[in-house]
Amino acid sequence: MQRLVILGGGESGVGTAILGKKEGYEVFVSDRGKIKEEYKNVLKHFEINWEEEVHTESKILNANVVMKSPGIPDKVALIQKLHTKGIPVISEIEFASKYTNATIIGITGSNGKTTTTMLTNYIFKEAGLHVGMAGNIGDSYAKMVSENSYDYYVLEISSFQLDGIVDFKPHIAILTNITPDHLDRYDYKFENYMASKFRIAKNQEPEDYLIYDADDEVIVQWLQDNPVKSQLIPFSIKEQLEEGAFIQDEKIIIKTQNNTIEMTTETLALEGKHNLKNTMAASTAAKLVSIRKETIRNSIATFQGAEHRLEKVLKINHVQYINDSKATNVNATYYALDSMKTATVWIVGGVDKGNNYKELMPLVREKVKAIICLGEDNSKIIDAFGNVVDLVVETYAMEEAVKVAYKIAGRGETVLLSPACASFDLFKNYEDRGNQFKNAIKNL
Q1: Using an 8 Å Cβ cutoff, are 372 and 282 in contact?
Q2: CA–CA separation, 14 vs 121, rounded Å?
Q3: Model confidence pLDDT, tens digit, residues 95-141
Q4: DSSP string for residues in 67-98
Q5: How many domains does the structure of the chain reveal?
Q6: Are residues 72 and 105 located together in one domain of the fold?
Q7: What is the rounded distance in angstroms from the CA atom of residue 265 to the CA atom of residue 276?
């Protein structure tokens, strides 16, 4: 019997354990932290052995294969020992994909992947396809594979998950964009992070597709230097293309395989240039699996978007409050500020992942009337924008930040939470930060 050891007892770890057990492995789950009660109950139900607050090496180094949680870096001593012994260390998406014949749409990128994943899934569902959505979003992919026989999977895939693939191959891969992010995991080398993202196409064949942002010079250059086997389908909001998706006369045009569809941009439910790109990517994927254009049109007009991503919360005294807590890097915040149509009170700050705020300067000059800092260390933000914006206020709690914003914002203006930073200094995660923002607004 093959021994499957799983490092990390969270959503992906427990899902993999269930699938491993079903497929006849001897399964062991090990977590250096505490395992949540709900997950322990699942492991007990399936009679799967586990340990917490320790990694017992004698129970791990005898594995035939190890699935590690995406949160564990490769540099960790235990992972290095496994590599030295020649024991394969893979990700959940690699493991689970071996046990499904479904058509896989894999979506990665620094920003936009959650919205693109949700929209793709929404269009497929509206078309009546039997589809599951998993990966970095929602339920565990492995657990889904163990319980369902979907015809399609739409997977949001992080670079950490791609680092652990061997044979994984999506039929349709979408690369939304690549901007510097998580560089602490990649020796602070942007090219290492890029190589990780492009692993999504490494096993693709000529009958597969790679949909990518042709306006992203980094992606275009990489593809020139590192050709892939799959068929390239670009999308662009800057130029018209021979093949792919582009904008012409306020319409989205998608040309693939001598077949063209047109959709007006006026009816799009999602606002902002970046959402135009997310919509083009998702619509192109839908077209490649032959979904009717009426279905695609109706879907992009009715889709509600992802929580914590440019989410309109409330209007109070003619001031619109927008929750963009998911913007954990400068690029995401750039798109948020770019989509603002009124003077904006901008709430920003948190744990800085090596941000260069200069890119935001033109938008801040044009749109931002006041900055409210929300982080333990706001010095970089104050240095960057202190001379550009008349009013910069430091706060240390969400309720305080929202109260200050309420006082500053005038009729017809917008209060935007778009932190450009991770949330771990004052919050559990970006969801917690976004939820605190929404609660503080409701308590005004």
Answers
A1: no
A2: 24
A3: 999 999 999 999 999 888 989 999 999 999 999 999 999 998 888 99
A4: EE-TTS-TTSHHHHHHHHTT--EE-HHHHHHT
A5: 3
A6: no
A7: 8
Give dist(CA 38, CA 64) in Å, integer.
28
C-alpha–C-alpha distance, residues 248 and 271, integer Å: 18
Q: Is the dihedral of CA 77, 83, 86, 87 positive or negative?
A: positive
C-alpha 266 chain-centroid distance: 26
C-alpha torsion angle, residues 240, 242, 244, 249 (rounded to 10) = 30
CA–CA gap between residue 305 and residue 310 (Å, rounded): 9
Torsion of CA 160, 81, 14, 141, to 10 degrees: 40
Round to the nearest angstrom and report the end-to-end CA distance of the chain: 60
Q: Any idea what the CATH number is for the domain that residue 22 is in?
A: 3.40.50.720
Give the largest Cα separation in the chain, rounded.
Answer: 68
Burial class (CB in 10 A: 0-12, 13-18, 19+), 324: buried
Distance between CA 252 and CA 257 in Å, rounded?
17
Question: Which residue, 162, 154, 158, 167, is CA-closest to 102?
Answer: 154
Annotated binding-site ranges for ATP: 109-115
Distance of CA 243 to the CA centre of its chain: 26
Joined together, the tokens standing for residue 306 give 């992802």
Token output for 217:
């010079």
pTM score above 0.85:
no
188 and 164 in one domain? Answer: yes
Give the tokens for residue 267: 């009816």
CB atoms within 10 A of CB 293: 16
Q: Are residues 284 and 383 in the same domain?
A: no
Pick the last residue of a domain from 90, 122, 157: 90
Name the packing angle between helices 217-225 and 190-198 (round to 10°): 70
Write the DSSP string, 140-199: -HHHHHHH---SEEEEE--HHHHTT-SS---SEEEE----S-SGGGGTT-HHHHHHHHHG
Residues at the annotated binding site?
Answer: 109-115
Q: pLDDT tens, 192-233?
A: 778 888 999 999 999 999 999 999 998 999 999 999 999 999
